[in-house]
Amino acid sequence: MRSRLVRGLATGALPLMAWACSAQTAAPLYPDVATFCVAKAKAICQAVAICAADPTACQTYQVSTCDTDATAATASGVRKYSSENAPACIDALSSAFGNNASVVSYAQLVGPGSLTDKCERVLVGSATKDQPCASDYDCANNLICVPAQPGTTSSQSVCASAVPKNAMDLCAEPGDQCPTDTYCAPPPGGVAPECIPAAQPGQACAAAAPCVSAERCSNGLCGARAIGRMSCSTNDDCAAGVPYCDVYAGNICTIGLTFATGATDCEGFLLGMGVAAPDAGGASGSDGSGDDGSGSD
Questions:
Q1: pLDDT digits over 155-184, tens only?
Q2: Is 295 part of any domain?
Q3: Does 290 map to a domain?
Q4: Confidence tier at 6 by pLDDT (50, 70, 90)
């Protein structure tokens, strides 16, 4: 009886073991950049249905852009393609651009968990602490890309761990993060950088002396952010209700990418027509603070 039960368990375990081995050795859906870029283009180009645009032209443009951007992003050897991370990007793009979606919102395009974020992670960064970087996605192990010399005009950036600081705390080490509406700089008459208050409405501002978060710096002074269809240079110029600076619509503040027959987002974003725009859905890109945030990698 006992030996029969043991044999039964052993026999019953074989299919489970075979399934586990099969699951572990299953081929990736997108084994390389080429297959990823084709799938990515297909996902984005679902929007041609509502745009009444040419699907072949869209596919050709999106694949070419993805391939070019992936080559640029991996040229230094800091970032490498991850087939494991590719499905999350493709699934997110398919959800956003499919089902005759007329709008892909700012929230979908920008920020943690957005299309941009998921698709950037298809090219995994390997830079470690104190190594040079161009964006957070160059860094390994959840490190962030920050000024190598906080509170100075140096443009060099390195990977570091984020270290939250309070207002008026020292912030001289890479990774020191000042709270909202403060920034890292030497206080008047001081030498060591601290988390000092950002400029208020009407006060002087510059790249090294930003405004409080509710304002934008325009012509050297802090003022109200741009509202709908007003001109902008980056997303940071736009008010909360229209937080997306749409380069395809002539650099104006909108709610996100908007698709309809003849729309400028259809022609510029999908087809690359008449717009010298940053990273239109390619395989590499920025954090979305000033670009299209289109889920580019």
A1: 899 999 999 999 999 999 999 999 999 999
A2: no
A3: no
A4: very low
Is residue 171, in this structure, part of any structural domain at all? yes
What is the model's pLDDT at position 153? 85
Q: How many structural domains compose the chain?
A: 1
Domain of residue 52: give its range.
30-270
Q: Which of 25-34, 226-235, 287-296 has the lowest mean pLDDT?
A: 287-296
68 occurs within a structural domain: yes
HSE at residue 276, side-chain half, CA atoms within 13 A, is 0
Query: Three-state SS across the chain?
Result: CHHHHHHHHHHHHHHHHHHHHHHHCCCCCCCCHHHHHHHHHHHHHHHHHHHCCCHHHHHHHHHHHHHHHHHHHHCCCCEEECCCCHHHHHHHHHHHHCCCCCEEEHHHHCCCCCHHHHHHCCEEECECCCCECCCHHHECCCCEEEECCCCCCCCCEEEECCEECCCCCECCCCCEECCCCEEEECCCCCCCCEEEECECCCCECECCECECCCEEEECCEEEECECCCCECCCHHHECCCCCEEEHHHCCEEECEEECCCCCHHHHHHHCCCCCCCCCCCCCCCCCCCCCCCCCCC
As a whole number, mean pLDDT of residues 45-65 equals 97
Integer-rounded Cα radius of gyration of the chain: 23
- The model's pLDDT over 128-149, given as tens digits with 9 standing for 90+, comes to 999 999 999 999 999 999 999 9
pLDDT at 16: 52
